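Q: what sequence does this backbone want?
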């Protein structure tokens, strides 16, 4: 059984993330969505909210694909998380060339820490390449429509988060 780890902050989960998750299910028998507890990023949604969003958005996908999808919060090194969940593969999404330089450095460091865990890059579908959680939050904060970037449930969560604050 091949286990993959798809790490990220997922603040919030976007259609781009869901696209990568869907495509990763073709490559592995079990996909662990590693939700980074990154206090330095100051997430909009707390950990429990992010985990619940991902579980809700991926439940039907797991049924549809037959791939076990598990959500796993982590705060340690990515390579240690991969070991903890028994992942042989780390799945990373690329949107643009700018992502590649950072990811290239990360692969080198992760390979130096554990050469037995491979990294696989999946390019986001063209219609999702511009989607970034940071930009989605900014659009939502300024009362813009994020319907093309997130699911209806995530859109509602964003509207609710920003409904009590001024733009």
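A:
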């Amino acid at each position: 059984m091949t286990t993959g780890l798809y790490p990220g902050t997922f603040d919030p989960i976007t259609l781009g993330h869901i696209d990568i998750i869907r495509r990763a299910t073709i490559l592995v028998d079990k996909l662990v969505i590693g939700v980074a507890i990154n206090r330095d990023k100051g997430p909009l949604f707390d950990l429990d909210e992010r985990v619940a969003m991902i579980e809700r958005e991926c439940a039907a996908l797991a049924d549809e694909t037959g791939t076990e999808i598990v959500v796993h919060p982590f705060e340690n090194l990515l390579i240690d998380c991969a070991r903890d969940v028994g992942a042989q593969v780390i799945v990373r999404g690329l949107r643009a060339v700018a992502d590649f330089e950072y990811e290239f450095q990360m692969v080198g460091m992760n390979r130096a820490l554990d050469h037995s865990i491979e990294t696989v890059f999946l390019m986001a579908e063209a219609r999702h390449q511009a989607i970034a959680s940071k930009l989605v939050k900014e659009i939502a904060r300024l009362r813009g429509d994020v319907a093309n970037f997130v699911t209806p449930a995530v859109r509602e969560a964003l509207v609710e988060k920003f409904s009590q604050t001024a733009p």
